[in-house]
Design goal:
single chain; alpha/beta; Rossmann fold; globular
Length: about 140
């Protein structure tokens, strides 16, 4: 299985005025949908802090309302013992990966760099621009490793 760990703020939801209603930056959403189309087996795990404010079904609805194939979403990150804890993203992703050993390859898209040992899998976005086509090309490379 191939997995994309997806942040919202700074990736789909850009600064300086990120949406709290779930209406994201259209070009970034279009770029994510392009990535999904290029990798039919890709599944999405939401690593965004939005996972602490919304249920998985609500997160899927938010993505769907932004024209993103929400059927690819299979879960959210977090420490199983304390899913809403504030451990760094890399640790949260490591916890998820330990519970899902069937993941063959993965990539992380985020505007932060707190990935610890997983930093080589990170494609960092600019929070003022969001997910670009260049980011998508790098994600495709990471997913092919």
């Amino acid at each position: 299985m191939k997995v994309l760990f997806l942040d919202f703020d700074g990736v789909l939801n850009i600064w300086p005025a990120p949406s709290r209603s779930g209406i994201f930056h259209k070009p970034s959403c279009t770029n994510l949908e392009y990535l999904i189309g290029e990798v039919p087996e890709l599944r999405i795990v939401i690593s965004s802090a939005w996972r602490m404010l919304h249920t998985l079904e609500e997160l899927k609805r938010i993505l769907k309302s932004n024209s993103i194939d929400s059927s690819r979403v299979i879960g959210v990150t977090g420490n199983e013992q304390s899913p809403n804890s504030n451990e760094h993203r890399g640790f949260q992703i490591e916890c998820w990966l330990k519970r899902h050993p069937n993941v063959k390859t993965f990539a992380i898209v985020d505007d932060e760099t707190d990935m610890g040992a997983l930093k080589s899998k990170l494609v960092k976005t600019d929070r003022f621009i969001g997910l670009t086509q260049e980011n998508v090309e790098k994600l495709l490379e990471v997913l092919e490793e």
